[in-house]
Amino acid sequence: MSERKYRVAMMFAGDPSTRATVKLEETRLGSIAKALRDVGLDVEAASYADEVADEVREQLLGVDGVLVRVDPVRKDGNRAKLDPILRDVASHGVFVSSHPDLILKMGTKEVLYRTRNMSWGTDTRLYATLEQFRRELPQCLAEGKPRVLKQNRGNGGIGVWKVEAVNPRASAARVRVRPALRGSQESEESLDEFVARCAQYFQDDGRIIDQVYQPRLTDGIVRCYQVRDRLAGFGEQLINALYPAAPDAAPADAPQPGPRLYYPPTRPDFQKLKNRLECEWLPEMCRVLSIDPGELPVIWDADFMYGPKDAAGEDTYVLCEINISSVYPFPDEALMPLAEETLRRLHARRLSR
To answer: Which CATH class is domain 7-97+338-352?
Structure first.
């Protein structure tokens, strides 16, 4: 008698009114569903909204695993209600592709602070309270370097700002600020006004991470797509959020972000980055964050900016963020490794029972 097939739910934020009729093939997740079926998995849609949370929980308790793609910050809410459900179903033996506890370890902006002493790190600070932020940010900006401030949980440029002092030596502090949201422009305001604007990011135990701005942002950002601990493809975005205007142009003329282009893991000029990530940085990150390498997410990505050239003239890289909660699209080359890793994890769980 053959073994029962594994059932996998693919979760995404959806409209509760169409939850019962939505078809994966008609969503952007259709190619992932096909890859999962190609390795022998039964796949079903799990459209999520807070209004149907209890119904989704019951669905997940009936499957072997769930691949989750739900943003941490959305127009219709956040994951405050979803994450306890995922913890609950995981405690009942359901495989969750990116467990909420793992997201808190490596999938928030705080990972930039906790790994700042690694060779992918840079001058990075953490503000845990509004009072600390109000006290220490002026001291930081007085050093004269632009900073990039990021709320701890966010996506799509939400809560990300480039900030610099108009005159670091002036007693009446004013700052130039530019949000990372597409279509945003640089403006000038008092430091007190900007601090008040950021107060919302400290709600519900929130915090702000502060990185020094990287001048080589104009060289682009490289995204490394990972299946567990192996690189499965690259993305490259040459004109990205916070890209500066030309030297003689007005701030409002800064170019808007361009498309991200996708490449297989064999792209020749990214092989040094691939090797450092797989062989050096991931093992070190797992040690620093107390993560079992075997429990890394089925699919996740890490964005890297270019740091200063080293003494030999080689590129260095600075970690910009790690994404776990909602990763897609990615190169087609990642589809089969993702499906095979999902099957492997499900099979390992069955054998361990």
So the answer is: alpha beta
Q: Is 125 left (phi over 0), alpha (psi -120 to 50) or beta?
A: beta
Report whether pLDDT(75) > 90.
no
What is the C-alpha radius of gyration for the chain, rounded to an integer number of angstroms?
21
DSSP characters over 249-315: S-GGGPPPP-PPEEE-TT-GGGHHHHHHIIIIIHHHHHHHHT--GGGS-SSEEEEEEEE---TTS--
Segment 55-66, tens digit of pLDDT = 999 999 999 999
100 pLDDT above the threshold of 90: yes
Q: Is 134 exposed, middle or buried (0-12, 13-18, 19+ CB in 10 A)?
A: middle
Query: What is the secondary structure of 136-178 as a DSSP string?
Result: HHHHHHTT---EEEEESS--TTTTEEEEEES-TT-SS-EEEEE
- Fold of the CATH domain 106-118+216-324: D-amino Acid Aminotransferase; Chain A, domain 1 (3.30.470)
Residues composing the chain: 353
Write down the residue that tokens 């990039």 correspond to.
Answer: 148
Q: Which residue has the tokens 């073994």?
A: 3
Instruction: Answer whether 98's CB lies under 8 Å from 71's CB.
Output: no
Cβ atoms within 10 Å, residue 76: 10
| β-strands 7-13, 42-48 pairing | parallel
Degrees to nearest 5, angle at CA 109 with 106 and 115: 60
337 upstream amide cis, omega within 30 of 0: no
At 172 the pLDDT is 65
**Terminal Cα distance for the chain, rounded:** 19
Joined tokens for residue 251: 């701030």
User: Which residues are paired to 300 by β-bridges?
Assistant: 226
pLDDT-derived band of residue 171, with 50, 70 and 90 as boundaries? low
Other beta carbons less than 10 A from residue 334's beta carbon? 26
Between CA 169 and CA 165 the distance in angstroms is 9
